[in-house]
Design goal:
Thiamine transport system permease protein ThiP, transport, mainly alpha, MetI-like_sf, cell inner membrane, single chain, MetI-like fold, 544 residues
Length: 544
Amino acid sequence: MYLTGAEFRRSLSAGLVALLAVLGFIAVAVASLAGFGRLADAAAVLNEPYVWRILRFTLYQACLSTLISVALAIPVALAMARRPQFPGRIWIVRLMAVPLGLPVLIGALGIIGIWGRQGLFNDMLDLAALGRPLQIYGLQGILIAHVYFNLPLAARLILAGLERVPQEYFKTAAMLAMPQRSVFRLIEWPVIAPLIAGVAGLIFMLCATSFTLVLILGGGPAATTIEVAIYQALRFDFNPARAVALSGLQIVLTALVLAALAFLPRAGDPGTSASSEAGRRPDADHRLSRGFDFALIALFTLWLILPLAVIVVKGAGADLIGLLVEPVFLRATATSLAIALSAALAALAVALSFIAAIGAIRTLRAPEPFYRGSAGAMSAMGSLVLLVPPIVLGTGWFLLLRPFGLTDTAAPAIVAAINALMALPFVLRVLQPAFAVHRSRTARLAASLGLSGLARLRIVDWPGLRRPVLTALAFAMALSLGDLGAVALFGGDQLTTLPWLLYSRLGSYRTDDANGLALILGALCLVLMIAGTRAPRNAGRGQT
């Protein structure tokens, strides 16, 4: 990469300003939690049995959710790996990614529609004269929801590892007439085993910081995680000391999990591979094995599709026209889109500033310690922002603004900033590889042509990077649009977003309206994702 002195200074300055803005926003929230003379009261709260019961339940449900998700993911991934070519396989692989981009609130409604007291599963048991024994609210509901969202993630990551195994291994196993148990023990398990710790750590992190699912499906004090307890302490009890103590506990827990993840092997990016180039597995020709694999794949596909189908069917049965013309819906939609666009643009600006600054520092042959430290901090920021979850950031800012009566005024900006931080790791994950490839292809040519500044952006960079930039922008918007965690403390008459309106209708037992809103919100997120992943016609221009 070739930069003029002015370009180097601009890139470095942009990165440092973005880094200070991110650290400053987080530091103010954390300082607010520690300030105002609350530390002594918060320390006393930690002696309450209630707090430690919440911590135990948080860890217990996260461990169970992780164990079940990974244990079920291994046979699913093995079945998919043994069947690299069958009609519809690519759509099943893509379907594995749907829960990752699905707003959690919509997924929770779909799960209730299947497993709830009036859900499809209990209806089938009732027809069989077995009554309605399944209760969705409580630990069982949390586990079902976490497995729904995390089983596809674990299966996708393990499948990516299995698809990298050379086909020659399986051909050799077939020549030696190895039984399937030996193939698993000698070929497949050595690939899966190193991935398990990293996959399990990632899922544990997601489950330990889960908010919306536990808020909807927890069912009471006996099934409450730390983040939900923080929300309840401020929203219902207004007990700042308890909220501060629980926030500190959550930060410590998240820090420990992130530290553990740093030492665990990372699973590779699964991408969207459908193994179209993989040949038929010689070890998978047994009729019994084939039947078992396809039965497992069918069950897995139903597990993913049914909640989505319930949302579509029940949402279509709601009074959509009536919802669309409600003033509160129009106001919530406008607020959600404004916050989502602001959050996405902010996340994109920060990510681009980080990438530009890191790239500029890497052009130095012997960078000074300050430059090396700055580049390291920017590189790590994608993970470090996860250290302070949205509900904890919201708590800090809520406690800071409340004495001044500014919570309603500043709420949209605070929510947008929190959503931007939560989207930042995903935006960086999309943009960093794309920028690295683009620079390697175009840097020398752009320098030889004397292109820099706006001319280089217009002729070389924008045509080549338009698709990943738009994909990152759309993904960040969809993530913000469906988020309830950041708005949970600030939501109300003065700030109503679509997720908050959906949650309010669900809480007031207006289930039909909630289903209709879930369908509309899901459709908006789907449109954003399709728009972001659609390649522009001239996306390849400007690349060499």
